[in-house]
Inverse folding.
């Protein structure tokens, strides 16, 4: 039986619908969603997960109301402030991907601070995608490489997949084995476009605030029943 996926990436979707269905403001759904993150992060190492990447805010999510955007940004700040201690105690190394420049400087400082504080942790690599878009990430990486070509430090002929990989926000992170999306939507919404080239996908109708370690465990079992061929032929 194939082993558990080493790197699981999750598109946490459905917070708004969860709250609206109960007659509550969308932000209540996001708060509940943050609780679920804590639970899943705690459960991940026992499920054999070494790398967990979660999509928290996309480059397209700025289209939402100011109230919702500010509410989400506040939630990210509070999550870092409140969880710093616990994440460290649980051996979680935290990283962020996405373009930080558009974020509030206080949030940027907190992100840098927790990345630094948890740098030595080894039990779980948690990556949070904030102001992340796969296309935006590729454009920023290509700009970086173009600068190196322009200043003569990179030969265009030496530009290969590894070089592009190394210029992405995920340079230090292995590709995801499994991408999960909650809430019944079956689209990628600009998540890890390059990195998920050979990922398996799982879609669950469960809204993110209702997601549990048990549901995750079931999904992982299904993953283990899959036949990953990477373009080859089954022996
Ligand atoms: C996912 O939940 C969280 C973010 C995108 C920030 P949504 O807020 O997209 O919830 P729905 O899809 O509207 O239900
Ligand atoms: C994707 O969810 C982004 C995150 C989960 C952060 P969205 O709810 O923004 O995606 P669409 O709009 O349904 O494609
Ligand atoms: Mg959504």
């Amino acid at each position: 039986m194939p082993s558990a996926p080493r790197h699981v990436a999750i598109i946490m979707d459905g917070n708004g619908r969860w709250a609206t269905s109960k007659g509550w403001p969308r932000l209540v759904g996001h708060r509940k969603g943050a609780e679920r993150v804590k639970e899943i992060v705690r459960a991940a190492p026992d499920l054999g997960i070494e790398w967990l990447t979660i999509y928290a805010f996309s480059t397209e999510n700025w289209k939402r109301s100011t109230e919702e955007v500010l509410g989400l940004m506040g939630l990210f700040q509070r999550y870092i402030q409140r969880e710093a201690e616990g994440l460290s105690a649980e051996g979680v190394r935290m990283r962020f991907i996405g373009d930080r420049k558009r974020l509030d400087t206080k949030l940027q400082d907190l992100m840098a601070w927790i990345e630094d504080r948890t740098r030595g942790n080894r039990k779980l690599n948690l990556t949070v995608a904030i102001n992340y878009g796969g296309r935006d990430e590729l454009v920023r990486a290509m700009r970086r490489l173009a600068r190196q070509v322009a200043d003569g430090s990179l030969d265009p002929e030496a530009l290969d997949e590894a070089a592009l990989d190394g210029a992405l926000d995920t340079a230090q992170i292995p590709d995801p084995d499994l991408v999960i999306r909650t809430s019944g939507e079956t689209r990628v919404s600009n998540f890890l476009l390059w990195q998920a080239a050979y990922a398996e996908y799982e879609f669950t109708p469960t809204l993110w605030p209702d997601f549990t370690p048990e549901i995750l465990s079931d999904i992982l079992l299904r993953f283990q029943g899959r036949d990953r061929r990477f373009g080859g032929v089954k022996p």
